[in-house]
Each structure stands twice: as C-alpha cells, then as structure tokens.
Specification:
- The complex is a heterodimer of chains A (about 350) and B (about 350).
- In chain A, about 55% of the residues lie in helices and about 10% in strands.
- Chain A contains nine helices and eight strands.
- Chain A has a four-stranded antiparallel β-sheet. A two-stranded antiparallel ribbon of chain A has the order 4-5.
- By secondary structure, chain A is of the alpha+beta class.
- The two termini of chain A are about 20 Å apart.
- By secondary structure, chain B is of the alpha/beta class.
- Chain B is built from 14 helices and 14 strands.
- In chain B, the strands form three sheets. In chain B, strands 1, 5, 6, 7, 8 and 14 form a six-stranded mixed β-sheet that branches. In chain B, strands 11-10-12-9-13 form a five-stranded mixed β-sheet, sandwiched between helices. Chain B has a three-stranded antiparallel β-sheet with strand order 2-3-4.
- The N and C termini of chain B lie far apart (about 60 Å).
C-alpha cells in the first residue's frame, strides 16, 4: 500500500467518522427533545401567498397549495434570477474586462474604478442600496409612466397596456389557450394590468417587480466585476507573441481577439468562471433581504411555520449542492472536437497533473 | 463460604465467585447511592435551574431591536418590557442576566438546543409552538393583535378597504399566516411583499413599495416611532388576530417552568396588592395580608419549594417593579409608543392580567 493511498483511506475514514458522529448526535438530540425528522408536514397547505411565481402551464400556486409547491416556486424563482443575472454578468463582465485592456486611458481608468469599487462593497449592501434607489427613482402608481391607451373602465379610469412605476413594470400579455389549438380555433385573451385599490395599485399582466430588478442588477453588477478581472487576467496570460503573429498576418484587433486570443484564453477562464457562476447562484439567496421570494425566503417562512428547521435546511443544502454540482459538471465537460474553421485552434482538454 | 475438603468442585467455585461479585456490586451501589443522595437543604430537581445557579448566569433570549419590548439604549443597556421581565427573573434567582438577541428564524432552535434558558421575545402563544415545537408557554406578558399601518393620505380606515393593496410583511412570523387567513376569510384580494427583517419591511413601506404594513399592533407602534414622519401614518383600529405574547421554556423541565411562571405571577400579584418597586421593603414589614407575607417570604416556604431563596419575590419586584410599573415604563403614555393598557391591565380593572393565589 503506497503512502498516498494510505492517506486517502485515512482521510476517507475521518470524514465518514465525523459525518456519522454528527448524524448520531443529531438523532440523540431529536429523541431527547421529542421531535421527529420527517417530511410529512410538508404536504399541508402552505397558507401564505408568494408575490412572484413563474407561470407554469397547468399549475397555479395558491395559498392552498402544499409546502412542496411553495418550495418548488421558490426554487424556480432562484433559477430564474440566477440564469438571467448570469447572462447579464457575463456580458457586462466581459465588456469591462476588455475595457481594462483598452488603449484609451479614460476607458481603462473608469473600468478599473468600477471593478475596484464594486468588488470592495459587500453584496448585501449593494442590493439594499440598489433597491432603495429603484424605489426612489420611479414614480408612484398614480403617476406612473403609461403606454398604449386602449380602453376606459367603468370607473372612468383610463387603462393602458404598459405601466412603469415604483411597484414595477407591468405589461399586458396575450394568453393563448393551447388546448383549443388542435380543434382549429385560436382563443386569445389578454392578461392586462388593471388598477386596484382605488387606482393606487396594479394587478395582472406580466409583472417585473422592483425586487426582481434590484436582485438582477445587484447580482449582475457584483459578479461582473469579478468576471471582468477573470477575463482580463486570462487574456493577458496569453503570450503576446500570439497577438503579434496575428497582427503580422494582417488580422484586425477584433479578429485577433475573436480567432486567436479568446479561444486560448477560454481554457484558462473556465475554472474561475465556474466559481463565479456558483457564487452567483448561491448569492441569489440574499433575495430575501429585498423581498424577492426565492428558495431561502420561502423556506424560511416554512421553517418558521412548521418548526422543521432541520428538514428545511437539508432541502436548502441539497438544492444548492445539486445546482452547484450541475453547473460545475456542465462547465468542465470535455469540449467537442472542432471542425470547419481553419483559424480556430483545436481546443484540448485540461491536462491532468499526475 | 462452604468448607469442603480440598478444592471445591467447579460449580461451587463459580457460585462462590458469583456471590462475591454480587456482594461487591451491592456495596458499590449502596455507596454511590449514598454519595448522590439529596443534601440537607431542599434543592430543585430542575437541571436548568441547577445549571443557571452553578454558572450564576441566566441566558435570556430577546429580540434586541424592538422598541418598547427589548432594545439596547444609547448607553448599551437593555431596556423594554421583555428585558424587564428577564431582569426580574434574574434577580429572583440571584444571578446575572445575559441577553441573547435572536431573530424570528433562530429563536426557536436557540431555545430547543439550550442556547438560551428562557425566551422572552414577544412570541405568540399558538398550538404549534406549544405542542409541535416542544415548548411550554409560562405566561402571557402582553395581549396583542395583528394590525395594519397605512399612510394617512390613503384615507383607508378599515381592513376591507385594503382590497387590491400590496402589503409589506416580515417573514418568519405568524403575521403571514394570519394575513392570508383573515383576508381569504373576508374574500379580500391582496399582494404580499415579504422581507427578512423588520427594518427592510418598514423601509420599503416608507418608500411607497406597499400600501400597508402589517405586524402586531405593538410592533406597529414601535416601527412608527422610527419612521421619518410618524404623524403621516395611521394605525388602523381593526385587529385581525389574537396575539398573546409571552415567555416560553422548552419541554422536559417542569420545575424550571414553574419558577419562570411564578416569578411572572408574583409581578402581577404585586400590582394587585399595591406593592411597588419603592415600597416592597416596607410592605414586607408592615403588610397584614397573609398572601403578601407568603409571597414575600415572611411566612411559609414558597421560595424553598421553587428551589430559590426566601426573598425571591422581593428581589424580583425591587429590580423591575410590578406588572403595571413595567408597562408604564416601557409602553405607557410617557414613552414614544404610548400604548393603551387595554387588555393588559388587571382583571379587577377589566383586563386579562390574572394571577392564581399564592397559597
């Protein structure tokens, strides 16, 4: 038995022992306090509404739905915000990263200032700040920005197809009844935002809340500063000879980046980018601070109503762990061999350190 | 031992060994029993109380950031209704009080795990908390109800007018459940915006994100004092739920529950009998009421029965005053909250504060 495998076995045993001890300890405490571990309580009806739910075909969340349904809605909200912020952060981060390598000192300087500032302030503070700014920036419902006047309701209030105010962006969307499609008829009804509460609030339509917007911007901006540094670092890590050779061949700056530098830099970028994606997904759990009903927020409500803290935390950990493993798996797959483009070099799998 | 010629046969030897072993065990058992026998003075059988008296510390779980109930003042001292009850309890035990600020999510696990000995954190007494979560409520120190705060400009006066409104709530409390129960019962549609902390919820309400803010009426009064223009906001008179707030302990230590319960009742009985923080020492000497004499330790052995000293009630009342004084000091007309006593006065004045007799 080599020393290496002996160490592996020892570490494995240590981990197993610690986990077993923790579980045993927990079981003992549960027994002494007369509590039980189980997910049966989650079948009960939730009893609380969720302010934003992803419209699923065939299912609508109501306070009568079970706790499982509430958790599912929270999870979908987490996915929704993570994906969208991720795309935004990647786009913005790449842009800022490239800006840091610009020839113009003003562009370089502002990008550097952006990165230094955003990286240094804790995310929670940035989220709360952005949320408060959004609430201040937009008008109240009564004086919201309105577009496309289409009717006047019975109280004499004009109805519009789109509203923008400090309760969010409301847009009328068509609702197509898919089940009637096969019979040849197309029934289109409109889900439009309608004034309620005496014209001081709106209900209906596609609603982008200020919570969603704040979280989207906050997560996106915060992660973009880190992604900018990752992109910059990876681009600079490519030997300048590559760039010089490409210029010698007559490529423009853009072509150099697109066909020579970036494909090589991508290999270097993938591991730190993966960490950033994982980080962003987990940071979405701060949504509860701005009122966005993602998984941690919904789980917290359930935890308090049922008292099943152990079970809810287990669900949180399982969900975030699975999400993180999925993201790392997708990012670290061996790339397919490229065919076609003569300029693009063959992408190779990362070398293993044996 | 049996005397036989030469070596005894095998089974007899085994029997002798067995007998000797049994005798040794019996002697050991008797010795250990005598060593752990209860000592001469009556000590409580409560493990929690024993630990508190040994460590000379009472760990009290409070909110820590709720005006009027438990908060830290400018000099770093804890003040508030709940804090005063903690101080009274600590004084009755003769130990120092260590406050542990807990939020709505961590309060129950902290009590369950033993991180705090008692939770006096404006917690509503409900079935699930008493039964499912494994706690015992040992009193109600504030009878409250869930209410709504709206901007005066909205001219809303009843809950029914909140149809279609957005309402800010804090997560992790009975508030969300009550809101939904009450509104679905009345058939009112609304939107709820849920925040983690009280501060975030009030900030969003102030910024106009929602049309109303809901929590216990006492919490509304506390939050209103923190707003930029308190007079621009009005608290609706209508209350949609019962929120009996009180101290709680965990299951499994009835004697400790008795201690907390009866310290609490002592403060109510003190108000009933006219004993105040100022006159408790004088009352001990001069009072002719036999119940007062028993409670203050002049006669009987109530303190000993609880596992405390004779002057447990005197120390508690001297530290925080009686129930009425505690209310006036923290929630009375001279404070920014200025809450009416309402149900929180003695039964003799039409309220619900009622103590069983000290016999």
């Amino acid at each position: 038995m080599t020393r290496r495998s002996a160490i592996h076995i020892l570490m494995g045993l240590l981990v197993v022992t610690m986990v077993a001890f923790a579980l045993f300890n927990a079981a003992q405490n549960f027994q002494s306090q007369g509590r039980s571990f189980g997910f049966d309580a989650f079948e009960q009806s939730a009893g609380f509404p969720i302010s934003e739910t992803l419209p699923l075909p065939g299912f609508e969340y109501t306070p009568e739905s079970s706790y499982w349904a509430a958790l599912a809605m929270g999870f979908l909200n987490t996915l929704k915000i993570s994906l969208v912020s991720l795309v935004f952060a990647l786009a913005l981060g790449t842009g800022v990263g490239l800006a840091r390598l610009s020839r113009f000192p003003e562009v370089r300087g502002s990008a550097t200032a952006y990165v230094s500032l955003v990286r240094s302030v804790p995310l929670l503070l940035q989220l709360v700040l952005i949320y408060v700014l959004i609430l201040q920036a937009f008008p109240v419902v009564a004086s919201s920005f309105k577009w496309i006047h289409y009717a006047v309701d019975e109280d004499g209030i004009s109805l519009y197809a789109a509203y923008l105010n400090n309760r969010g962006l409301f847009v009328a969307v068509p609702k197509i009844d898919w089940t009637l499609l096969w019979s040849g008829s197309l029934s289109v009804s409109w889900d439009a935002p309608l004034p309620t509460f005496g014209g001081r609030n709106l209900r209906g339509g596609l609603h982008l809340s200020p919570e969603y917007l704040a979280l989207f911007l906050g997560l996106g901006i915060y992660s973009s500063s880190f992604i900018a540094e990752i992109v910059r670092g990876s681009l600079q890590a490519i030997d300048s000879g590559q760039r010089e050779a490409a210029r010698a061949l007559g490529m423009t700056e853009f072509q150099t980046l697109r066909y020579v530098v970036f494909p090589q830099a991508w290999k270097i970028m993938v591991p730190p980018l993966t960490s950033q994606f994982l980080s962003l997904t987990k940071n979405s759990s701060l949504g509860v601070a701005v009122g966005y009903p993602e998984l941690v927020s919904v789980g917290g409500t359930i935890l308090n109503q049922t008292g099943k803290s152990f079970e809810v935390i287990t669900i949180w950990m399982t969900v975030y762990l699975s999400l993180s493993l999925l993201i790392s798996f997708l990012m670290n797959r061996k790339p397919r061999p490229r065919t076609g483009s003569p300029h693009a070099p063959q992408a190779t799998a990362p070398t293993r350190l044996s | 031992m049996l005397k036989t010629a030469g070596r005894a046969p095998f089974f007899l030897q085994s029997l002798q060994k067995l007998l000797r072993l049994a005798l040794a065990c019996a002697a050991l058992g008797l010795a250990s029993f005598m060593l752990t026998a209860p000592s001469a003075h009556a000590a409580s059988r409560s493990p929690t109380l024993k630990k508190i008296l040994a460590e000379k510390k009472l760990k009290c779980g409070v909110a820590g950031n709720l005006a009027g109930f438990s908060y830290v003042d400018a000099s770093g001292n804890y003040k508030g209704l709940d804090a005063d009850y903690c101080f009274a309890l600590g004084a009755a035990l003769g130990v120092d009080v260590v406050f542990k600020p807990l939020n709505a999510k961590t309060r129950f696990p902290a009590l369950q795990s033993g991180e705090v000995d008692v939770l006096i954190r404006n917690t509503t007494f409900t079935f699930s908390r008493d039964v499912t979560l494994g706690f015992d409520f040992v009193g109600i120190n504030y009878y409250d109800g869930q209410g709504f705060m709206v901007p005066k400009a909205s001219k809303v006066q009843t809950v029914k007018e909140l149809e279609g409104a957005s309402i800010c709530v804090q997560t992790g409390t009975t508030t969300e459940l009550n809101l939904n129960d009450a509104f679905s019962r009345k058939g009112i549609k609304f939107k709820s915006v849920v925040f983690e902390t009280l501060e975030d919820a009030t900030k969003a309400y102030e910024a106009g994100r929602c049309d109303a803010y809901t929590t216990d009426a006492s919490g509304l009064a506390a939050s209103r004092t923190a707003l930029k223009k308190p007079s621009d906001h009005v608290i609706l008179k209508e209350v949609i739920s019962k929120e009996p707030l009180g101290p709680l302990v965990r299951h499994g230590d009835n004697e400790w529950g008795d201690v907390v319960r009866w310290v609490f009742f002592a403060l109510i009985t003190a108000e009933e009998k006219g004993i105040t923080q100022a006159n408790v020492a004088a009352q001990l000497q001069s009072s002719k009421d036999p119940e007062v004499a028993r409670m203050l330790g002049k006669s009987g052995n109530l303190g000993e029965a609880l596992g405390l000293s004779k002057d447990w009630a005197i120390k508690a009342i001297a530290k925080s005053g009686n129930a009425g004084e505690i209310f006036e000091r923290n929630l009375g007309p001279k404070t920014p909250l200025a809450l009416e006593r309402g149900l929180n006065q003695l039964w003799t004045s039409g309220g619900l504060l009622y103590s069983p007799p000290f016999n």
